[in-house]
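Justification of resources, computational component.

The compute hours requested in this renewal are based largely on the per-chain cost of generating structure records like the one below. Each record pairs the submitted sequence with a full structure-token output. That output is archived, and it is also reused by downstream analysis tasks.
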Amino acid sequence: MKPTLVTGASGFVGWHVARLLGERGHQVKALVRPQSRVRDLDVELVAGDLRDAASLARAVAGCALVFHVAADYRLWAPDPDELYRSNVDGTRNLLEAARQAGVERVVYTSTVGCIGIPKGGEGNEETPVSLDQMAGAYKRSKFMAEQVALEFARSGFPVVVVNPTAPVGDHDVKPTPTGKIIVDFLRGQMPAYIDTGLNVVDVRDVAQGEWLACERGVPGERYILGSENLTLARILETLARITGRKAPAVRLPYALAYAAGVVTTALARFTGRPPKAPLDAVRMAKKKMFVSPGKARRKLGYAPGPAEEALRRAVEWFEANGYAR
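The structure output for this chain reads:
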């Protein structure tokens, strides 16, 4: 069996994709930056960078499959252009290297942020959306990168796109913005909440969905990998039930959250340190990101489990690894 390349294996979703592939008997090559590590996995580390085309050509050589999971996932950066270089240019570099190497199939990991959300309803893969509707450099860069992936698919290169929602679970090392909600709750650093909502999914189900997309997905098609639509208040109530802690009772008006985003983000430009409330994150929170994973269920056989089990495992992992202190 030819090896399979996974980008982003040192990150949250990528780690779980690499773990699942290893369990399925794949010889996994993990593209990582020289300073990165991949904990607790038996994979071949390949040093490289999405912005370095030559390193990508070396990484994909001899591979049959590529799972492109890596992304610059920051809701604030001192230089927003870095996100475009990694997410947009890096995706184009990798797909071109994979095409030149004769890779048989690529699964590109996009984001639910690229899915259109109708007012008061659930979005799906067919909901109209445009670049103008993307708030901030992260979402804009991911939208543009998804368009690059779809362009390659239209040209005949077999690229399947998946759009994970808000994954939670174990091994969220960084942690992700969704994982940070859990960590802040565990530390008692969430005195209030805003009226927003997410589609929460077990990260292990996302990894399974990535494999199903590789196995059964149609090139050029998008598949939402999600589970349950939950308001932030409901998520916090669930965490309270799991931990025995109290959920915050104060709902912060959006205008006040926006003002905090403006102030803390402006301050970050002077300090160089990430803001406590990035303005782009506040803008994203104005809209409930409720979507339907129905297409993945029907077309891929995707069967995600309940969000509460994933939240419970995330809590246990964060507590066991010292994040709750």
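The two ends are 45 Å apart (CA to CA). The domain at 4-168+201-226 is CATH 3.40.50.720 (Rossmann fold).
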